[in-house]
Specification:
The complex is a heterotrimer.
Chain A (H helix, E strand, L loop, with lengths): L1 H32 L2 H7 L1 H7 L15 E3 L12 H13 L5 E6 L6 H21 L7 E7 L10 H7 L1 E6 L1
Parallel strand pairs in A: 2-3
Antiparallel strand pairs in A: 1-4, 2-4
Helix pairs in contact in A: 1-6, 4-5
Chain B lengths: L1 H17 L3 E6 L5 E5 L3 E2 L7 H11 L3 E3 L20 H6 L4 E9 L5 E9 L4 E10 L5 H17 L8 E10 L2 E10 L6 E6 L3 E6 L6 E5 L6 E5 L6 E5 L5 E6 L5 E6 L6 E6 L5 E3 L7 E6 L5 E6 L6 E6 L6 E2 L6 E7 L5 E7 L4 E7 L5 E3 L7 E5 L5 E8 L2 E8 L5 E5 L3 E7 L6
Parallel strand pairs in B: 2-4, 2-5, 3-5
Antiparallel strand pairs in B: 1-30, 5-6, 6-7, 8-9, 8-31, 9-10, 11-12, 12-13, 13-14, 15-16, 16-17, 17-18, 19-20, 20-21, 21-22, 23-24, 24-25, 25-26, 27-28, 28-29, 29-30
Helix pairs in contact in B: 2-4
Chain C lengths: L1 H10 L9 H36 L7 E5 L5 E3 L11 H14 L5 E5 L5 H13 L5 E4 L4 H12 L1
Parallel strand pairs in C: 1-3, 3-4
Antiparallel strand pairs in C: 1-2
Helix pairs in contact in C: 3-4
The chains are: A alpha+beta, B mainly beta, C alpha/beta.
Chain lengths: ~170, ~425, ~160
């Protein structure tokens, strides 16, 4: 019995380390490169309505506009620092410009909870931008919950891409 | 066994031809009760074959196995009235119950069904059943009412054949995903559209009288709560605050809506009066509070909160006050739903490996898991409190599933594309 | 023991004749036993008979009987019309339906002694077409001695 317990703990620990490694590996690989195409396609509908206002030239590139999160977490990760910094620079330099922070989650958990979790994630990005000097009036927070995934799979590789906040200039 | 499979296949085929929602019984009762539903005496030109719908309903419940019509062929003329009933015949056919009847067509397309239920072994009549339709479109409902009465007499549980279910479908069309909120009869027939959008539709919730439905839309990318009367199509945008407007749930008296709003910085539960729109804030925490549900007596609200660090279910008086934690089992518990009889709370439980539907006995606090996971959510009770419908991830996308509260009988409800967010309508008051 | 036996053997002369008296004793005892038990055994069979008939009458094992009249017509004791002669196809439909829904049903043929043999054979093939794997025959003959043997029991 005791042996069993130790075995289970050990297996879980190994599994946790393994998934931890693979997921961070995925994110490092995916965030800058792969994220470009899914974002631009998924944003098609919104971008057309917002596109007119954006000042294109100085807005950070779309690859620089996605902040990723861990499962059921709204804590900003160290690797997101550059994205936040780039947008903070742009928004403080253009005080009349605005940005929409769209929070998203993976499919796990209920839709109603995820709607709130998405909002909490956009609030976390908003707080980081504000602490970097951006005015609250420049930011609009929305949440899509788990409704707008960019990767349709049912595995960690897809989930890690879907747990995100997209920063869309307006 | 083979026969069971065959009838199952036939059932799917016949439904597929007519309806969008395909229903399969995947786990019937260990011993389904054999019942013979003899074709009712019915003048030609009736809207539907009433006895066939009754038999299909009983089969779909998983608790009955109706006698195939082909097996009645040799016994012509089949009984229509009591003196024609020969118990020996039905005993020889292994049947335990027998239903006979006649359908009288009324002027204006309506009809009246008079049916009789017999106990084959005790050789006696159990009950006489009457159901009427005032229009041709109500014939199916009339047949479901007959099946409901048979089901209740033989099982002791109220039938749910003459009820309706709302659900959201999501179909990829030309590079875009189209969402539709649909309501259909409990057998998947007669689907009618409530709303359609290229933005997600969420959280449908029926008013206690079954006449109105509240749901969440994302037009302009922002959530709003709509209240609509499906029969007429009339709707109002009830709430469209800054931030989240979600998870509407009705109080049992139908005068208030309990919702989640985040315009005051963070998702909290509010009670909104439908007539005056006056709002009362129920929770005030830095945590996420959402998915409220009101108990059958209207006094308690259960909701999800992650104030402890992970999502768990809490209860609170509808007048406010202290929140009391209800769930401690599993890593997370989400989306509580009170049963209409007030005895059970359905929820989504996460134990580290998957999300499954759990049922908490409110009196004892004991939780039982009744679904297999790994991504089950959105439980909604049937109005008899004996069946729960929920969303599961099937092999070809999201599908609906039902499970009896004892866990024994299961159905799968598939639809083209994804189908999810089920909401079982209450018994409509006459 | 062995030591005490061998000297005796040496003293006595061997008798060439076999001693059959014990065998006769045993045989007589056996004879008496058989004589006593034989009537008891036949009584036992008679007592069990009524129990057996009581069991076959229980509702669940009700057999299905195809009657063949002297004129060669078929009748079934299921369907509520035992007096109506049935078409061949109706016999197949009915027996088939019953066996599909209650496969353990016993199927019997009860033919009039005056009926032509080919009508019985045809009846059998109908039952087989309906899916009956085993068919029992009921004849009128055994009912007479059984009734006669039942009488002394009461007396």
């Amino acid at each position: 019995m005791l042996n069993n317990k130790w075995f289970v703990c050990a297996t879980l620990a190994v599994a946790a380390i393994a998934t931890g490694c693979s997921s961070t590996g995925d994110k490092n690989a995916n965030a800058p490169a792969d994220a470009v195409s899914p974002t631009s396609t998924s944003q098609g509908g919104v971008a057309t309505s917002a596109g007119g206002k954006s000042t294109g030239a100085s807005t950070p590139a779309s690859a620089q506009s996605i902040v990723y999160f861990d499962f059921d977490s709204s804590d900003l990760k160290a690797e997101s620092k550059d994205v936040v910094a780039a947008w903070a620079r742009y928004l403080t330099a253009n005080p009349t410009s605005k940005a929409q922070l769209q929070g998203n989650t993976d499919e796990r958990g209920t839709r109603e909870y995820n709607l709130s979790l998405g909002e909490r994630r956009s609030a976390a990005v908003s707080a980081a931008l504000q602490s970097a000097g951006v005015s609250a009036s420049q930011l609009e927070l929305t949440s899509n919950g788990e409704e707008k995934p960019v990767a349709m799979g049912h595995d960690e590789a897809s989930w890690s891409q879907n747990r995100r906040v997209e920063i869309v200039g307006q | 066994m083979l026969r069971r499979l065959l009838t199952g296949c036939l059932l799917i085929a016949s439904l597929a031809a007519q309806a969008d929602l395909d229903i399969t019984v995947v786990g019937g009762s260990k011993r389904a009760q054999p019942i013979a539903v003899v074709p009712f005496q019915q003048a030609p030109g009736g809207a539907v074959d009433v006895a066939q719908i009754v038999a299909a309903d009983l089969d779909r419940s998983g608790q009955f196995l109706s006698l195939a019509r082909a097996d009645m062929k040799g016994f012509d003329p089949l009984p229509v009235t009591e003196p024609q009933v020969d118990y020996r015949t039905w005993r020889a056919l292994g049947q335990e119950a027998l239903v006979i009847g006649q359908v009288q067509i009324l002027p204006g397309g309506g009809a009246k069904t008079t049916a009789e239920l017999y106990d084959v072994f005790r050789t006696q009549k159990i009950m006489t059943i009457e159901a009427t339709a005032t229009r041709a479109t109500e014939w199916r409902s009339m047949a479901h009412k007959v099946a409901d009465q048979i089901y209740e007499k033989l099982t002791g549980t109220k039938g749910i054949f003459d009820t309706r279910i709302a659900y959201v479908t999501s179909i990829q069309t030309g590079g875009r995903r189209q969402f539709k909120l649909i309501w259909a009869d409990a057998d998947g027939e007669n689907p009618r559209e409530i709303a359609r959008s290229f933005e997600p539709l969420l959280s449908p919730s029926w008013s206690p009288d079954g006449r109105r439905i509240a749901y969440v839309t994302f037009e302009d990318g922002r959530s709003k709560i709509i209240i609509q009367t499906p029969a007429t199509g009339e709707y109002v945008t009830f709430l469209g605050e800054k931030g989240i407007n979600s998870a509407p749930s009705w109080t049992p008296d139908g005068t208030k809506l309990v919702v989640t709003l985040s315009f005051q910085k963070n998702a909290d539960i509010y009670v909104i009066d439908l007539a005056t729109k006056s709002r009362r804030r129920l929770t005030d925490s830095f945590a996420i509070d959402t998915s409220p549900t009101v108990s059958a007596d209207g006094r308690t609200v259960a909701f999800l909160s992650d104030r402890s660090g992970t999502a768990q279910i809490y209860t609170m008086s509808i007048d406010g006050g202290e929140a009391k934690r209800l769930t401690f089992e599993g890593r997370r518990n989400e989306q509580p739903r009170f049963s209409p009889d007030g005895k059970t709370l359905a929820l989504v439980n996460y134990n580290g490996s998957g999300y499954r539907i759990g049922l908490v006995d409110i009196a004892t606090g004991v939780m039982r898991l009744v679904s297999d996971g790994p991504l089950d959510e959105g439980p909604s009770f049937a109005p008899n409190s004996a069946v729960v419908i929920y969303t599961r991830q099937g092999s070809s996308g999201a599908e609906l599933a039902t499970v009896s509260t004892d866990g024994s009988i299961r159905q799968r409800l598939r639809h083209t594309g994804d189908v999810r967010e089920p909401a079982w309508a209450p018994y409509t008051k006459p | 023991m062995a030591g005490s036996v061998s000297p005796k053997k040496g003293k006595r002369r061997l008798s060439a004749e076999m001693n059959v008296v014990p065998y006769i004793d045993v045989m007589l005892v056996l004879l008496v036993i058989f004589m006593v038990t034989a009537p008891l055994m036949t009584q036992g069979i008679d007592v069990e008979l009524p129990q057996a008939t009581a069991e076959t009458l229980s509702a669940d094992d009700e057999p299905l009987t195809l009657f063949v009249s002297a004129r060669g017509e078929y009748f079934l004791d299921a369907g509520g019309d035992a007096k109506k002669a049935l078409e061949d196809q109706t016999v197949i439909d009915r027996v088939g339906a019953i066996l599909r829904n209650k496969p353990q049903t016993m199927v019997l043929i009860r033919a009039d002694k005056g009926v032509k043999y080919d009508r019985v054979a045809n009846g059998m093939s109908l039952l087989q077409a309906a899916g009956a794997a085993k068919i029992g025959f009921v004849t009128d003959a055994p009912t007479v001695p059984r009734a006669a043997s039942a009488k002394p029991e009461r007396g």
